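Holo prediction. Input below; ligand is beta-D-glucopyranose.
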Amino acid sequence: MRALTVQPGIADSARLDEVPEPEACDRTLLVRALALGICATDRDIVSARSGSAPPGEQRLILGHESLGVVEEAPPGCGFAPGDHVVGIVRRPDPVPCPACAAGEWDMCHNGRYTERGIKERHGYGAELFRLEPAFAVKVDRDLGLLAVLLEPASIVAKAWDHAERIARRARAAAPHRLLVTGAGPVGLLAALIGRQRGLDVHIFDRAEKGLKVDQVRGLGATYHRGRIADVLEDLRPDILLECTGAVPVIRDCLAHVGRNGIIGLAGLSPAAAEAPLDIGRFNRTMVLENQVVFGAVNANRAHFEAAAGALAAADRDWLAGLVSRRVPLARWTEALENRPDDVKVVIDFTLRDAAPD
Ligand code: BGC
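Structure of the complex:
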């Protein structure tokens, strides 16, 4: 079978390989891939900025944003052939630490967790893969290919979970206004959940026009560009979800969020990117204005399930607008390209290899 593999640590070593089919196993699901979402983490691994192969192996099967159809399921496991499933990314550390032992592997204490397609475990970028029922999430077949958005949606479901728990520190004032920085897939899915909560939603990005701007409007949210500091001074959001990872944007978010502001950092910056920040001033406003900054990575089963609810409740046409390109597996190199109007690019295993977008 074909699989998209990479040698972590070696830039541009990705290739479409012929690899053995998964071995027989009577405890796991055998899943045929339908779609694989591509994100910045995959591009980072291909550029040797992150990623590690399973112990004792040189190459890693890439891919962590999965969607597949069950071909074989152990009896009584809760899944049946024909079910559409998405694989959870992280596996608990082997100790396990108290968080992993409680199913909160996204909060692993010792960093010895593994992640499919990222850290020491083969990913989902293969025509067939095996999945433990405990790490499979059943999705509505009616969502079709759009269920591939579940993994990125799980990431924002976690950020929302944490932001809302922090917001409960103030009994009198529920959050009313949300600002999301970055109108990529993560930002737009974060905004979707904000709209579903009934918030006044604003999204900041640098695009002048195009798909991202249309998606913001399609959500009934307000689009902003220009200087983030001005936007913040004007809006004073209760919750700010930062989804760009862009260092100057983050610096301005930290400096201008405003009283009682909660900032969730969900985008990853390049390492060693500097922007000057007056720590004294930062500390004074954090303390005097009850501000909170938190980071959120990965997602546990509860977040995947919350995300499944958010996708099921979303307008299908709007969700479809997030998938800006579908590429057959044979043309995987195009899937890794970052084109100007891309939102989410997906490798569609059901497309004939020669088919156009
Ligand atoms: C994935 C997360 C993962 C993180 C760090 C992200 O792209 O969505 O599941 O924890 O990368 O490896």
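The longest helix spans residues 150-167. That is the main takeaway for now.
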